[in-house]
């Protein structure tokens, strides 16, 4: 007993001793040396032509660990230093952020005060999380306009509209052209084998009819997957036109709108499909893209969706296992009940969401604006995205798209994702002139050889769907309860919806009622209340 | 008269029914352990399309060594192999030194303050600060982006320490120590000349634990090695190889599909496992009975 | 001489005796240190490592009592006392997670802890050294497969819809078994796969211990007429008892812990009675939500429970005559 007391005492002494040692290194009472705003730029000192003393600019860059490519030191980082850094007397340093561990990376860097000058994320809720963690500093839009006129010209609407939180300008953005390469594919040979045509699939009811025919003919089922993390399933079941308040309170990519009528309809449909064996009976096991793909490639399911690119292997893989397969694009109307319209989610007009590190000095912040300005110049952006004439490509075609040199392996080789992680700070995908010209160009990036018609159809359907696409609601205040409860609600949602979908139809009503209550009690009610309050207070955009 | 090696002719006992039973049971269990590995090897030598469709079991389908070619073609993989070997060897040596230095004193029952010290060491097994405090600590020590961040923190393992202490207590009786003390030997001498030679099995065992543990783990490298990409150990490199090939994110526009990882995953597992499997046969010879006979005349 | 002075005198004598005792103790101590200082020098190295790398981050435990905001750092964040713990214990998933953790780890202890011991004893009976070596190498293979791979394989084999084992069962005329897709079946599969994954590697430590057994003990047993099983029971097992006890106590300390990887690999969302455990919650709150205060608090809870259990187990072991841990 005595020994153990001594032991405990020894531990306490040790730990306290170490506390004392560590706290000296580690304290950061609020913002040391940070700025709570900035002095009027341009009044006292003008850095538009560079800095008198060398400034170190730390830019984050996603590290996807491409082989042979060091994100922090390669031809293009050196080119950036030469073309930009030297001109303005700036040392441009790149901080690698692991793509799949980005939040943790940022947390560690911020905790040890080595985070880059830009804090960025694609996801608005997470960006708001960063804001709530007090790691960003407020911005002065005039300063941005002064130092980055080209960038500002392009982005000012977006920045002013979407970048304010709690009345302060916190975020700035990269542009997102209105493009999407998500496509739903269906086995055309199966459709025709049961005497129907892909064009016949004009409603959910017709689609289910077809699935019944598939089942009876022993062909297979529709593909299914586990809904998790991303909740955009209920669009097709919503009323049209949309009630703005309903939309504001319930639509949320990270929290399911479990208690709405749209969800109920979706659940009923899924329950019907599951019980009648129209859908993958083990759809809940498909919790990642590869597992869904496996079913389609093996020929057990007849539908599949992905972000298509010219080097996709999906068609080849299916053909290897099912040589008789043919493919078509599944019309969006196939998911919509009779009388409805094909509603869907539209991305916001911005791509990367960025803020300035609360510990960045004035000079570092201004250096960021200069960097964005430099990168927004068409010739710089083009070089980063496409490389150099005579090296990576030889001349431009009629659309202004570079004619690539096949298998170019010189020192100016682009990264496997075309240097995206560098220029994603200003734009989300390459732009070639007007919107039409851009789409033309992107078609070549997206179309696998021999399957150009897939991309054509995809674009055609998207055109048709445009009037019914709308973005998520955006609040100008962080909704704390979302970040607090979303992980738990995500898990709860999966449990509940699977239970409902996989039970017999006569149990549906009782189960759904009970489930709604459970969901509300687990934090959803709090989220709804907080959102309603924010909506009523007018803290919302669009 | 120390005898090492296998026991003398006790095999005068015939091979009886129980032996058959035991041999069979062991063989069955080994088979169950082997087959899944064979499955992974089969997947690593198959064509993507069949692997995705879950059609590969114990034999490759659409035989191709494409994934291995991809691995070997990557020069940085070879470098990360060297890094892993260096880190593992250094880690193991350092770990064993530390463990032995702690286990021997603590194994002496009459050590004053022994219980307290054991408690201090054991405490670390169950209490940890968490990811962020550990990261800050490594950062404060200036070890980020160095190989030492992979070698030093884990070198002290309370788990291994306690196992070794138990082993020393059982196998190095106090009488042995007393005899040596009477002969005038100090503890350093005893440790070096008596304890170490007699502890070969446990040293071999713990070395294996240290080595395999270090070889397989990549989570710490994931966060501690960021800028210095040439210092990435093999497992981390392979993790990235698989992960970056399968990523696609909701809010990102990606115009490039990276190659399918299923076969790559499998070949990566094989590639990373085979080296360490080859180590075991060398350790084997230390697991031999009767190393201690004759040392003590009782 | 009156009684008082006599007692005072004797009291004085006693006092001096105590002082004498203390003096002797101190002298003994000094002697001991003089003779055994080398032991303490040896201990300096491990102590240095333990302090620098294990104790230094411990100050982060204080996050369990704070509302951690990264920008304010560990020390600048606001103190909230036991609020975080209250939140956790009141959480709807906590009780179930607690139950599941104890259940799964308990079953693990019963099956995964004992299996390597039996296997090691069996392996020890093999006298063809080549056969023994080959089998040992094979037995270690599962240890080198990571859980995601094992999980994918498990579903490929045991899946209800298209799993190989079920295909075979159906072919032989039986009904398909939901090995992983029904609660109690899942539990059994989880434990079984856990045994499979760890039993081979677990034999190493026991075989090492067995190789330290004095062969003269076996000879003596043979002379006494003991057969194979007798020898196992009376010679081998008792000799490796210290190792078993040490490992048992160490593993008891992990009863509140465990890995979430094994669960993630084998779980599916339709069979969720037993799949929420405390490590899973730590992952969900710590990594997925980035709620560090909560994750640290749960970690602290796990550690404290583990420590208490170890101290109790150690006491019991000592009472039973074993060395124990401390």
**Global shape of chain B:** globular
Unreliable spans of chain A are 21-42
* Mean pLDDT figure of chain B: 83
Distance between the terminal alpha carbons of chain A, to the nearest Å? 68 Å
Order of helices and strands of chain B: HHHHHHHHHHHHHH
Please indicate the count of domains of chain B: 1
Structural domain count of chain A = 2
Instruction: Report the helical percentage of chain A.
Output: 40-55%
Query: What helical percentage do the residues of chain B reach?
Result: 55-70%
Can you give the mean pLDDT of chain A? Answer: 89
* CATH hierarchy: architecture of the largest domain in chain A: 3-Layer(aba) Sandwich
The largest β sheet of chain B comes out as: none
Q: Can you tell me the CATH superfamily of the largest domain in chain A?
A: Periplasmic binding protein-like II
Quick synopsis:
With 542 residues, chain A is an alpha+beta fold. Chain A is built from 19 helices and 17 strands. Chain B is globular.
């Amino acid at each position: 007993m005595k020994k153990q007391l001594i032991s405990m005492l020894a531990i306490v002494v040790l730990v306290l001793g170490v506390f004392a040692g560590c706290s000296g290194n580690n304290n950061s009472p609020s913002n040391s040396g940070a700025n709570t705003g900035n002095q009027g730029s341009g009044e006292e000192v003008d850095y538009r032509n560079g800095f008198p003393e060398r400034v170190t600019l730390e830019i984050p860059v996603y590290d996807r660990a491409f082989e042979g490519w060091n994100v922090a030191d390669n031809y293009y980082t050196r080119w950036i230093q030469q073309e930009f850094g030297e001109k303005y007397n700036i040392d441009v340093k790149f901080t690698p952020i692991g793509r799949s561990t980005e939040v943790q990376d940022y947390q560690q860097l911020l905790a040890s005060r080595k985070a880059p000058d830009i804090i960025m994320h694609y996801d608005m809720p997470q960006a708001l999380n960063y804001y709530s963690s007090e790691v960003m500093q407020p911005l002065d839009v005039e300063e941005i306009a002064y130092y980055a006129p080209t960038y500002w010209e392009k982005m000012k609407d977006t920045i002013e509209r979407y970048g304010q939180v709690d009345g302060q300008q916190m975020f700035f953005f990269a542009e997102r052209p209105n493009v999407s390469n998500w496509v739903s594919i269906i086995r055309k040979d199966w459709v025709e084998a049961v005497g129907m045509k892909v064009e016949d699939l004009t409603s959910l009811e017709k689609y289910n009819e077809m699935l019944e025919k598939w089942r009876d003919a022993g062909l297979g089922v529709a593909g299914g997957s586990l809904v998790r993390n991303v909740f955009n399933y209920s669009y097709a079941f919503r009323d049209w036109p949309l009630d703005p308040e309903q939309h504001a309170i319930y639509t949320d990519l990270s929290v399911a709108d479990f208690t709405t009528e749209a969800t109920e309809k979706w659940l009923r449909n899924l329950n019907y499909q599951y019980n009648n064996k129209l859908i993958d009976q083990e759809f809940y096991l498909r919790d990642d893209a590869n597992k869904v793909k496996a079913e389609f490639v093996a020929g057990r399911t007849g539908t599949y969706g992905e972000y298509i690119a010219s080097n996709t292997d999906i068609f080849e893989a299916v053909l290897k296992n099912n040589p008789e397969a043919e493919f078509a694009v599944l019309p969006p109307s196939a998911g919509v009940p009779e009388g409805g319209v094909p509603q869907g989610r539209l991305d916001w007009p911005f791509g990367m969401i960025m803020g300035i590190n609360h510990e960045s000095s004035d000079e570092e912040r201004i250096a960021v604006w200069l960097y964005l300005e430099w990168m927004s110049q068409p010739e710089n952006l083009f070089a980063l995205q496409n490389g150099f004439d005579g090296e990576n490509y030889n001349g431009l075609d009629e659309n202004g798209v570079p004619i690539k040199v096949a298998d170019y392996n010189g020192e100016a080789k682009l990264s496997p994702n075309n240097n995206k992680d560098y220029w994603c700070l200003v734009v989300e995908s390459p732009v070639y002139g007007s919107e039409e010209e851009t789409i033309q160009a992107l078609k070549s990036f997206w179309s696998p050889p021999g399957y150009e018609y897939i991309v054509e159809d995809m674009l055609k359907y998207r055109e048709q769907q445009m009037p019914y696409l709308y973005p998520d609601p955006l609040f100008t205040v962080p909704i704390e309860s979302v970040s607090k409860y979303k992980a738990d609600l995500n898990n709860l949602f999966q449990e509940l919806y699977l239970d409902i979908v996989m039970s017999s139809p006569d149990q549906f009503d009782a189960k759904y009622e009970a489930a709604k209550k459970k969901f509300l009690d687990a934090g959803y009610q709090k989220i709804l209340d907080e959102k309603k309050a924010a909506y009523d207070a007018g803290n919302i955009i669009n | 008269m120390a005898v090492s090696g296998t026991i003398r002719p006790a095999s005068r006992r015939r091979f009886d029914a129980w032996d058959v039973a035991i041999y069979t049971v062991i063989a069955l269990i080994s088979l169950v352990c082997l087959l899944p590995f064979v499955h992974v090897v089969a997947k690593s030598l198959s064509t993507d399309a069949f692997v995705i469709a879950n059609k590969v079991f114990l034999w490759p389908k659409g035989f191709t060594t494409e994934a291995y070619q991809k691995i070997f073609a990557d020069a940085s993989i070879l470098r990360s192999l060297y890094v892993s070997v260096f880190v593992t060897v250094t880690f193991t040596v350092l770990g064993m030194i530390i463990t032995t230095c702690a286990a021997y004193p603590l194994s002496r029952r009459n050590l004053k303050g022994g219980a307290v010290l054991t408690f201090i060491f054991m405490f670390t097994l169950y209490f940890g600060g968490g990811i962020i405090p550990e990261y800050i600590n490594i950062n404060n020590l200036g070890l980020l982006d160095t190989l030492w961040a992979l070698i030093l923190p884990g070198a002290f393992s309370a788990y291994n320490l306690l196992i070794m202490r138990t082993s020393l207590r059982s196998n190095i009786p106090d009488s042995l120590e007393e005899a040596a003390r009477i002969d005038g030997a100090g503890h350093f001498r005893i440790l070096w000349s008596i304890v170490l030679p007699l502890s070969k099995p446990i040293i071999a065992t713990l070395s294996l634990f240290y080595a395999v543990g270090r070889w397989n783990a990549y989570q710490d490298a994931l966060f501690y090695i960021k800028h210095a990409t040439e210092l990435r150990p093999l497992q981390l490199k392979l993790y990235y190889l698989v992960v970056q090939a399968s990523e696609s994110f909701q809010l990102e526009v990606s115009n490039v599909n990276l190659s399918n990882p299923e076969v790559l995953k499998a070949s990566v597992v094989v590639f990373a496992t085979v080296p360490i499997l080859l180590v075991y046969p060398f350790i084997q010879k230390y697991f031999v009975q009767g190393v201690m006979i004759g040392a003590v005349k009782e | 001489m009156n009684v008082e002075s006599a007692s005072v005198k004797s009291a004085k004598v006693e006092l001096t005796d105590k002082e004498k005792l203390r003096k002797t103790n101190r002298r003994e101590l000094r002697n001991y240190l003089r003779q055994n200082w080398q032991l303490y020098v040896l201990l300096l190295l491990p102590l240095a490592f333990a302090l620098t790398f294990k104790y230094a981050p411990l100050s982060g435990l204080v996050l369990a009592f704070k509302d951690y905001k990264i920008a304010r750092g560990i020390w600048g964040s606001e103190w909230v006392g036991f609020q975080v713990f209250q939140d956790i214990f009141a959480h709807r998933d906590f009780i179930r997670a607690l139950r599941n953790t104890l259940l799964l780890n308990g079953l693990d202890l019963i099956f995964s802890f004992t299996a390597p011991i039996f296997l090691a004893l069996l392996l020890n009976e093999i006298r063809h050294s080549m056969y023994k070596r080959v089998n040992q190498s094979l037995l270690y293979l599962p240890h080198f497969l990571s859980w995601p791979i094992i999980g994918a394989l498990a579903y490929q084999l045991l899946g209800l819809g298209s799993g190989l084992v079920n295909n075979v069962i159906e072919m032989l005329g039986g009904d398909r078994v939901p090995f992983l897709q029904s609660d109690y079946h899942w539990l059994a599969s989880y434990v079984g796969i856990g045994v499979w994954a760890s039993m081979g590697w677990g034999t190493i430590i026991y075989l090492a211990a067995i190789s330290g057994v004095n062969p003269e003990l076996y000879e003596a047993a043979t002379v006494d007429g003991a057969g194979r099983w007798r020898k196992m029971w009376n010679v081998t097992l008792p000799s490796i008892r210290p190792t078993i006890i040490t490992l048992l106590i160490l593993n008891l300390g992990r009863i509140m812990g465990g890995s979430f990887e094994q669960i993630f690999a084998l779980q599916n969302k339709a069979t969720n009675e037993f799949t929420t455990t405390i490590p899973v919650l730590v992952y969900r709150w710590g990594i997925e939500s980035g709620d560090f205060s909560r994750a640290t608090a749960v970690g602290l809870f796990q550690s404290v429970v583990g420590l208490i259990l170890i101290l109790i187990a150690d006491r019991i072991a000592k009472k039973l005559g074993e060395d124990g841990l401390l």
